[in-house]
Amino acid sequence: MQKIGYSSSPIAYEHEGIRLEGGVKRISSNLFLLEGHLQGRIQVECARSAKPFFKEILQDLKVFICDGIFDPKEGNEAGIDALDVIESFDGMIDIADVLYSEVQSIQADYHYLD
Question: What is the torsion angle, in degrees rounded to the nearest 10, for the CA atoms of residue 28, residue 18, residue 100 and residue 81?
Answer without folding.
Answer: 40
